[in-house]
Amino acid sequence: MGKSIASRFDNIDIAKSTLRAVIINDDELTLEMDFCLEPAHPDYEDPGADEECCWHPGLLKFAGISKLQLDRRETAGDGMQRRFAIETFNIEGTKFDMACEWGDIHLQARSIRVLTE
Fold it and tell me: Record's superkingdom (predicted)?
């Protein structure tokens, strides 16, 4: 049996993690993330002197989307921003909700996968 979605976020500090990009393809949505790993995570390395976290790239992939609402925020200097801070993050069953500096994402999907690179 596979791991639950919640357990896939063990030892990842979602509140400090950031969104890098939103990619939409047909009935799929991919969120490129920089996950902030906690010391107990197997891929954890001591952060550099100028970083607060051990940043690790990853993806949230949603397939078989039946409901999708993207509310993009307009921000000053939006073209230069590379990381968007997460304000709220919730996965419950097939539903996903996230608010961040990029905007608000609400969806329902048949498949939700957490991938680390």
Answer: Bacteria
96, containing H or E segment: strand 95-100
What is the Cα–Cα distance from 48 to 97, expressed in whole angstroms?
A: 31
Residue range of the domain that includes 75: 6-116
**Domains in the chain, number:** 1
N-term to C-term CA, the chain: 22
pLDDT at 2 over 70: no
- Integer Cα distance of 17 and 115 in angstroms: 14
Report if residue 1 sits inside a domain: no
How remote is the C-alpha of 9 from its chain's centroid?
10
Give pTM, 2 decimals. 0.84
